[in-house]
Amino acid sequence: MSAFRMYLRVVSQSLQPEEISKRLGAEPDESASIGSRRHPQSPPRSHATWIRHAGPAESCARPEELEPVVVGWGWELAGALGRLVGSGEAVVSLEIVQEIRDLDDPQQKGIFLGADLLSWMGAARASLDIDQYVFHECGDE
């Protein structure tokens, strides 16, 4: 089964995750602060990230199965995200990551986004970022 992951990402070069949470009235599942480091030898981050996952990391749900989770976060959160984007202090994106491991499996192909999710994203002023990874063994042909 294909692994689809979906998450909301807020990125700011001026606000720390705590301030983003305060403005949104919601907590992230994970975050990184301005000035923090991914690894001790890495340069300090120039931006903060605030992330909320639409399902567990090990989930293999298709995007249309994850849509109710995102929309279920509520229109109040979507509006708060939209206001944050409108302030110019952050950008918001809905991230979909797809890993294709079986080229013959129809469940691993195609991404459908429904009207409710697209409306929610519009209210949140969120862009859509789709990352697709195809893992395929090439034959000796």
Description:
The protein has 141 residues and is α+β, with helices and mostly antiparallel strands. 22% of the residues are buried. The mean pLDDT is 88. The protein has 4 helices and 5 strands; from the N terminus they run E-H-E-E-H-H-E-H-E. Helix 3 packs across helix 4.
Summarize the structure.
The protein has 141 residues and is of the alpha+beta class.
| Structural class designation | alpha+beta
Please provide the ordered H/E string of secondary-structure elements: EHEEHHEHE
Q: Strand content of the residues, in percent?
A: 25-35%
What is the general shape? flat
Rg over CA atoms, rounded to whole Å, is 17 Å
- Low-pLDDT stretches: none
Strand count: 5
Rounded mean pLDDT is: 88
User: How many individual helices?
Assistant: 4
Q: Helicity range of the residues?
A: 25-40%
Distance N to C terminus: 26 Å
Task: Enumerate the strands of the largest sheet in spatial order, edge to edge or round the barrel.
Answer: 2-3-1-4-5
Described by strand count, sense and barrel closure, the largest sheet is:
5 strands, mixed
What are the salient characteristics of this protein?
about 140 residues, alpha+beta, five-stranded mixed beta sheet, 5 strands
Topology diagram in text:
Layout: E1 3-12, H1 17-24, E2 30-32, E3 48-53, H2 63-72, H3 75-86, E4 91-100, H4 115-124, E5 127-134
Parallel strand pairs: 4-5
Antiparallel strand pairs: 1-3, 1-4, 2-3
Helix pairs in contact: 3-4
